[in-house]
């Protein structure tokens, strides 16, 4: 990483007329957890969909967002960017789902 922000790189690509993806398509914004981008459309990622289902079950069982994030980390379930689960990330996914 050269220390450049993602948005800065995307602006530079647009400024010089370079395609953002290998196939030349432009996908704006991050991919939502539970989906992948294939052939210019969002398709369900089954492993991530299973994680979302698990989050819903934990929440219905009365666990806090922090407890859900902790359980996902203990089970080594990866985030979209292979980071560490945070309560606010779980909240956003459950709000969208």
Molecular structure report:
The chain is built from four helices and two strands; from the N terminus they run H-E-E-H-H-H. It has 97 residues and is mostly helical. It has two domains: 39 residues, no CATH class; 51 residues. It has a two-stranded antiparallel sheet. The two termini are 32 Å apart. The model has no long low-confidence stretch (mean pLDDT 87).
How does the SSE layout of this entry go?
Elements: H1 6-15, E1 35-38, E2 41-44, H2 46-60, H3 65-74, H4 87-96
Antiparallel strand pairs: 1-2
Helix pairs in contact: 3-4
Helix percent reads: 40-55%
What's the tally of helices? Answer: 4
Low-confidence stretches: none
What sort of overall outline do the alpha carbons produce when their principal axes are compared?
Answer: elongated
Order of helices and strands: HEEHHH
**Total count of domains:** 2
Radius of gyration, CA atoms, in whole angstroms: 16 Å
User: How many β-strand stretches?
Assistant: 2
Beta percentage is 5-15%
The computed structural class is: mainly alpha
